[in-house]
Design a protein that fits this description.
195 residues, mainly alpha, 3 domains, two-stranded antiparallel sheet, Arc Repressor Mutant, subunit A, 5 strands, single chain
């Protein structure tokens, strides 16, 4: 299930491209004309839902994901792997059912569940910011021994105060799991740093 939210116009444009023109963006609803088309294309491109391919725009991976449609030719190994594992578990369970002891069946199910949990844990990659992003700049500032004030982060990134606070609380603490401590400096400004 996708967490990407599309407007009705964006949904219609992407769906039409996938259904009628092999992923090329060549149709817009009647009410979207002139400069509005450029804005819709810019909005889709900024969210990486479409990408430039030569002179045309095409639906990107994120666009397929937003519609919940698999990309043609995309690897489906995780699903196939799951189906293969499920088949093996069912076969083992059927064999265990013929055994006298139901403990064998329980052991087979537990073994399969633990194998799935290990596979899921191995395939999950930790989130990390891009090397030269503003988020990476903020993290570097917070790693300094002296930390950083709200004003320093605002000046470095060009963000407003509410954006800096949101980044500290949401992206860094919640999503990346970083521990951020703050204290008031003698001058009265709050200083933030990574613990």
């Amino acid at each position: 299930m996708s967490t990407i939210t599309l407007t009705p116009a964006q949904h219609a444009i992407l769906a039409h491209a996938l259904e009628h023109s092999d992923g090329r963006i060549d149709w817009f609803p009647e009410h979207i004309q002139g400069g509005a088309r450029r804005k819709v294309l810019d909005g889709l491109a900024n969210r990486a839902l479409i990408a430039r391919q030569g002179e045309v725009w095409v639906v990107a991976d994120a666009g397929y994901e937003a519609l919940g449609v698999p990309r043609p030719g995309a690897r489906t190994a995780p699903r196939q792997s799951f189906v293969a594992k499920l088949g093996a578990v069912i076969a083992r369970a059927e064999q265990a059912q013929t055994a006298r002891d139901e403990a064998d069946l329980e052991a087979a199910v537990n073994a399969a569940e633990s194998a799935w949990a290990q596979d899921a844990h191995r395939s999950a990659e930790p989130r990390r910011p891009r090397a030269h992003s503003k988020q990476a700049q903020v993290i570097a500032m917070l790693q300094r021994p002296e930390g950083a004030t709200l004003r320093q982060i605002m000046d470095s990134t060009g963000w407003q105060a509410h954006t800096v606070r949101g980044t500290l609380a949401g992206a860094l603490k919640k999503k990346l799991g970083l521990t951020i401590v703050s204290e008031r400096s003698p001058g009265g400004e709050r200083v933030y740093r990574l613990a």
